Amino acid sequence: MRTFLRHIIDYLLPHTCCFCQKKTSRSAELCLTCESQLPRVKQACVVCGKATTHDFPICYACLKKPPPFDRTYVLFPYESLAANMITRLKFGHELRYAKILGQLMADFLINAWSNNPPIEMPECIIPVPLHPKRLKERGFNQSIEIARPIRERLHIPIELYAGHRIRDTQAQSSLPKAERKSNVMRAFMIDKNFHANHVAILDDVMTTGHTVLEFSRALRKQGVQKIDVWCCARA
User: Fold this and answer.
1) Which residues contact 150 (CB under 8 A, 6 or more apart)?
2) CA 140, 154, 119, 41: dihedral to nearest 10 degrees?
3) Could you tell me which of 102, 106, 206, 224 has the C-alpha nearest to residue 163?
4) Torsion over CA: 202, 182, 61, 67 (sign)
5) In whole angstroms, what is the distance from residue 215 CA to residue 190 CA?
6) Exposed, middle or buried by CB within 10 Å (0-12, 13-18, 19+), for 210?
7) How many CB atoms neighbour CB 213 within 10 A?
8) Are 206 and 234 in contact (CB under 8 A)?
9) Which of 48, 159, 181, 229 lies most in the core, judged by the most C-beta atoms within 10 Å?
10) Predicted local distance difference test score (pLDDT) of residue 120
11) Sheet containing 226-234: which strands, arranged edge to edge?
12) What are the structural domain ranges in the chain?
């Protein structure tokens, strides 16, 4: 009955693409034409997700000094339409882009796992937390909003209270590369009652990766054995 009503609503109130504004029969707010124009990751390190120019699955930096997380899944490079979506979500407060990004990430993960099935699924999704001051200013945590459609599709719970941002750090995007590591140092605390073996950290954008590195270190100290990183865009 619910599916039938959904079809009736879609017929009477057709969706429009968030970019080109053309009507689309898809339930997603992104038409196939615009989706096909989104940038794709051609070749990247399976550990840190950074673009590479060689066929070896792990980059030299990760071989030399492995990060505290195990694998990174990158939806898009941080450019063109993908960057536009994230900017409009975070700074334009256009929450429909969180839904679109979450749906695309879920599709991407399902496709990636069909080609290379994981031994075990993450027990929970942990969105990178914002400091309470930043959360109050913005009104929402974009990573949490992106996680919601993923939870619905993959049936993996979101853990909202596992991690806390205890330092009001500057926005990483506003700092030069050399200052980003110290900016997030000891910025996170994990709840002492949180216990899990395998988790997925969800972040909207990875640039230098220092935020995810620091958050992963905190999770490791709490006993987490395996950490995947899911990010919508990688710079």
Assistant:
1) 102, 105, 106, 109, 125, 156, 202, 230
2) -70
3) 224
4) negative
5) 9
6) buried
7) 18
8) yes
9) 229
10) 87
11) 71-77, 226-234, 198-206, 124-127
12) 1-37, 38-234
Fold entry, domain 38-234: Rossmann fold (3.40.50)
The pTM of this model reads: 0.89
Residue with tokens 């109050």: 136
**pLDDT tens-digit map of 89-138:** 999 999 999 999 999 999 999 999 998 888 789 999 999 999 999 999 99
Distances (CA, A) of 167 to 130, 131, 159, 190: 9, 7, 20, 13
**Cα(102)–Cα(107) distance, integer angstroms:** 9
Three-state secondary structure of the chain? CHHHHHHHHHHHCCEECCCCCCEECCCCCCCHHHHHCCCCCCCECCCCCCECCCCCCCCHHHHHCCCCCCEEEEEEECCHHHHHHHHHHHCCCCCHHHHHHHHHHHHHHHHHHHHCCCCCCCCEEEECCCCHHHHHHHCCCHHHHHHHHHHHHHCCCECCCCEEECCCCCCHHHCCHHHHHHHCCCCEEECCCCCCCEEEEEEEEECCCHHHHHHHHHHHHCCCCEEEEEEEEEC
pLDDT > 90? residue 184: no
